[in-house]
Amino acid sequence: MRAMKLAARLRSYDWTAAFIELVIVVVGILIALQVSNWNQSRLDHARADNYYRRLHAELLADRHNIDSTLKFWNKVSDYGRAAIAYGETGQRVDASNWKTVLAYYQSSQLMPFELESSTYSEMRDSDGLGLIADEGLRKRLADYYRLTGPGITANILHHDPVYRMQVRGLTPWSVQQYIWDKCYRALGGANQELIDCPSPISEQEAAAVLDSYRQSESLLQNLRFWMSTLRVGVIVLDSTRKDTNSLETEIQATLAR
What we know:
By secondary structure, the chain is mostly helical. The protein has helices at residues 2-12, 15-89, 97-106, 118-125, 135-145, 152-157, 162-170, 173-182, 203-215, 219-256, and strands spanning 184-188, 191-194. Helix content is 74%, strand content 4%. Helix 7 (162-170) packs across helix 10. The protein is rod-shaped, with a radius of gyration of 33 Å. The relative contact order is 0.14.
């Protein structure tokens, strides 16, 4: 009896209307999914565009900082070569005891270098690297920002030479104060300038300082090691600048599409 009633109900049911309702529901779900996907795609595109613009700005900042750092490191290296020449051969800078003392001291100056990596770090930590559609570009960015890590390349760019401690321990405090006041200028941020300056002491007093340098058994050895390390840093930074230019050009082209 129940089976007969169920059969009668099924025969009387409007299956055409039910099918139409089902189609409407399915189409509505598909449209909603498409709209959701389109909206997510639009948000992802805007997010990616923002990241590209920030990366581009930081690469431009990197290039400026690399140029400033290389200029400073080359200046320090010039002083270092002059100090080494005196330590090895007794040749003074421009036949001046004071200029030779200054060369020793300025050889100990530092300017650490770091890439502007805040945007890349944010992308990595928030799973935003997938927004970079070009897999090759993702790899090149990863290689580039590896300089900010704890590896050997990062250590080369962050210096803490023993020579720095030694020469400053041997240089009279009054001379050091004068060098900071008259032979050095902070330009804002990490930028610095080393300045040729007249002597605050007599040539005889400067000769006594040079004698203390030459009497140190390890000062010249540590100066050579420091200059060698700095030379490697210059090589690394020169190579990094090429990568900076390449990435900046590539991201600029991506933004222009």
